[in-house]
Write a structure and sequence with these properties.
This protein is α/β, with parallel strands linked by helices. It has 14 helices and 20 strands. The chain has a 5-stranded mixed beta barrel. A 4-stranded parallel sheet has the order 1-2-3-4, sandwiched between helices. α10 runs parallel beside α12 and α13 runs parallel beside α14.
């Protein structure tokens, strides 16, 4: 979501005559787009702001947008007096006001609606992978999560507006669409005629665009994986055989304390349904270790579900207390030492899952998306349908954005392959 927001902010400012620079010292306006999902992310924001204010020229405007702006509010000005603006994730379309009135301090962290999507200009040139938000906010209110506070309750964009974005992306260079939302598969929009549109309808309509060759979406809530969405994995070949469906914990007791109502058996049933309609599909997840009152037995259940589902690529974190969340004031908070040990054990299992899957890809042929050169400049980097990185020696001929590649080697981190002409 932040990638999308940053792209649109840049496009909006370019419409007002600005050009991008990578050098802080040259910048006339410096914008830090932020995430507040974990405490470490917020800490990094203020550490970065400290470095920027020492490096920027005196006349440069400095501000933060996004979730940390919403979380910190006016306190951000106290912590960093040099800030000129603090804009929440639904307010960054107010940035032109800063350009017109550089002497004012602008604070706007109100949770609005979908106005920013109406006011932002369309991209004149899309990246190969276009990120298209379909909804913002979340109604599930997991007890550890700050998103309902920073992004608000769920709002789904009008179906025609989303399709207009995908059509524009297709016409301006995109070949892959990634639909976004804090609860992306909870997308529901009813038009003035009473027609209900869901994420599966967006996928089906987008797949009709000849320029678009790959479609994916993130991130999914388990109980929102309805049969219409499951079944489209079996009928739409442009939809990649890969799904991020966070489980967070394998313990029913901890899931209840997290206010995540997904029953483990129901979760496993969804995975099996997906495999029935798309046998080659693979699943990734998110995990939180050290949630308040998590016992060794609870954590053992998390390890068990990680082994059973065999997630091929997952994100795991130590529980991080966030303001405005119920879990932050729960009793029996877990020590950092125990969290670190558990995270190390979980990561070992997840890394083994990833290594096993990567090794299973050797000798297979995959259609992969070209991403660019590696750091050495001697190799090319591709992305498989399962979002694995694949390194290929640079050929002596032109390549296309999608290439058939034979996988020749693998390790935990990435694949290696050769282009099939």
């Amino acid at each position: 979501m932040n990638v999308y927001d940053s792209e649109r902010i840049a496009a909006m400012l370019e419409k007002h005559g600005l050009t991008q620079t990578e050098n802080v010292a040259d910048a006339d306006i410096i914008i830090l787009n932020t995430c507040a999902v974990r405490a470490k992310a917020t800490d990094k924001v203020y550490s970065c702001l400290g470095r920027i204010r020492r490096a920027k020229k005196e006349s440069a405007l400095l501000g933060i947008v996004g979730c940390v702006a919403r979380e910190s509010g006016s306190d951000a000005f106290r912590r960093i007096p040099e800030l000129n603006f603090v804009l929440g994730p639904q307010s960054y379309h107010k940035l032109p006001e800063i350009i017109k009135n550089p002497d004012i301090k602008l604070l706007n962290i109100d949770l609005g609606g979908l106005e920013k999507f109406d006011e932002l200009p369309q991209m004149e040139k899309s990246p190969t992978v276009a990120y298209i938000p379909v909804q913002e906010g979340c109604n599930h209110c997991c007890t550890y999560c700050i998103v309902p506070y920073t992004r608000g309750r769920e709002l789904s964009r009008p179906f025609d507006d989303v399709i207009a974005d995908t059509v524009n992306a297709a016409k301006t260079g995109a070949i892959e669409i990634c639909f976004l939302g804090q609860n992306v598969n909870g997308y529901k929009y009813t038009d003035e005629k009473g027609n209900l549109f869901r994420l599966s309808d967006l996928i089906r309509e987008t797949a009709k665009l000849p320029e678009i060759l790959r479609i994916r979406f993130t991130s999914s809530y388990p109980t929102e994986m309805t049969d219409d969405l499951i079944n489209i994995f079996g009928t739409e070949p442009k939809l990649l055989p890969f799904l991020n469906m966070p489980i967070q914990s394998g313990s029913p007791r901890i899931l209840k304390k997290m206010n995540r109502p997904n029953d483990l058996d129901a979760y496993k049933t969804i995975v099996q349904k997906l495999k029935n309609v798309r046998p080659d599909i693979q699943i990734s997840s998110d995990f939180i270790v050290g949630f308040p009152d998590e016992t060794d037995e609870d954590f053992a259940e998390t390890l068990r579900i990680a082994r059973e589902i065999k997630y091929i690529n997952s994100y795991s974190f130590k529980y991080s207390p966030r303001p405005h969340t119920a879990a932050a004031i729960m009793p029996n908070q877990i020590s950092e030492q125990i969290k670190s040990v558990r995270l190390q054990q979980l990561d070992a299992q997840l890394n083994e899952n990833q290594r096993e899957f990567n090794m299973s890809c050797i000798d297979k042929e995959m259609i992969c998306l070209f991403e660019g050169n590696d750091k050495t400049g001697r190799n090319l980097v591709f992305r498989t349908p399962y979002m694995q990185q694949c390194i290929v020696e640079k050929p002596d001929h032109e390549i296309t954005p999608l290439q058939k590649i034979k996988i020749t080697d693998a390790n935990k981190s990435c694949l290696h392959g050769e282009i099939i002409k």
